[in-house]
Amino acid sequence: MYVCQWHLDIPYGKQRDVVAIMTAWGKEKFASSEFRRATGAKLMVGHIGESASHIVDEYYFNSLADFELALAGMGQPQFKPHSDALGPYIIPGTQEWKVFRVLG
Asked: With CB atoms counted within 10 Å of each terminal CB, which end of the chain scores lower, N or C?
C-alpha cells in the first residue's frame, strides 16, 4: 500500500477558501476519475508544529500504478475549474507530492 500526499502552502487567512475548493475537487476526483481506485483519503491542515497555511491532500492506493492512473486523469476538463480556483492560492514553489510505501 502507498500513502500519496500532495503538500502545498497558501497565504495566511485563506484556509477556509482553500479547504472548500479542495473538498469540492476531491468529490469530483472520486466521482469521475481513477482517484476512485484510492482506498481512502484525508485533507489535513497544519495545527501544532506546522503552519495552518500548510495543506496536505492525502490518498491511499494499493499500487503505484493506481496512483499514476489517477494522476494521468487530472487533465480532464471537469477538473479545470477546480484547478483554476485553487491556483491563485498556492504559494509558488511549495507544492510537491510525497509518496510513502506502507510496511507490514
From this structure: C
